[in-house]
Amino acid sequence: MEAVGDGIPDHADSTGVYRFRRSDWWTSGFYPGMLWIFYDMTKDECYKTTAWQRDVEMEPWLLHPEGGMNHDVGFQFLPTAVIKHTLTGDEEARRRGLAAANYLAARFNPAGGFLRAWNQGPDGQPVAGWAIIDCLMNLPLLFWAGRQTGDPRYAQIAVRHADTFLQYGMREDGSVSHILSFDPSTGAFLESLGGQGFAADSAWSRGAAWALYGFLLAYKNTGDPRYLEASRRAADFFLSHLPEDGVPYWDFRLPSLQGEPRDSSAAAIAASGLLDLAEAAPAAQQKTYQDAAEWMLQSLTENYAVWDRPGFGPILTGATGNRPLGHHVDCSLIFGDYYYVEAMAKAEGWKNRIFG
Which residue segments constitute the domains of the chain, with CATH numbers given? Predict the structure, then answer.
């Protein structure tokens, strides 16, 4: 809290000094999300006070024509407005959460059955026909809104998007594509794109973690066993391709590992998802996923967490943002820290699960 102040932390280099973003940036919910977890676990009012205004600051961007909000409003408003309403009953937070859900639902393409990703591609040109694996993590915002309002359309949209990725984005071996491209007018599937992975047919490790966790969330919200099976397949692929310390390289299908960075954020996301999967999986497999999550968290704690550097803002090092574009390579990422905290809270019995 001292290092961040009123800023919106996104990443940090080897100096441990946070770099900040505007409140419309997709990672703007993760720091306050950690604060709400701390508040829920400790009941220390300082965390609630510090986190209180963060959803208020983000809301104007939902109506801003030049803002950067997109499919990631779930990442922004689930760990702010939704958890705030859950823990405090604040009705304005509920209203903001529903406004974000409406914004997300409006990005749905009924022809292709997907939520449109981003607003522009890497070249700065508009993209209307892309869907990405990350967006599975935003679907709980729609499921929540459906329960809050009694309107089934929110869940219907979430299910259509999950089904589309299950059909076109998940491979037989449990690996997944990052980007799916569709004709936005007809909905016809065109191709898979590498995105932040090494290639279109590679296996971006953070994408595998999003799939593991995201399909499990779809299962928790629907009870559909297809999503549980998809989560298990993604988990088995992820775990079977890990190096000895349990923290993956940024892609599981690199032609050479020489000089390639790890991604501690992928390990943190996967560990948190595995703890939920351990509760949902058949009894014979629960211990496997529980043990794997604990092993990965122990490795992150002992090998990637920064406990001995005074003034170092983040928790984890060794994360990789976008290796193909050279963005935030071997650094600290705020969402890696968030999912590490979330997983540790689950291990300590935390029940008010933001993405559950």
Answer: 9-347 (1.50.10.10)
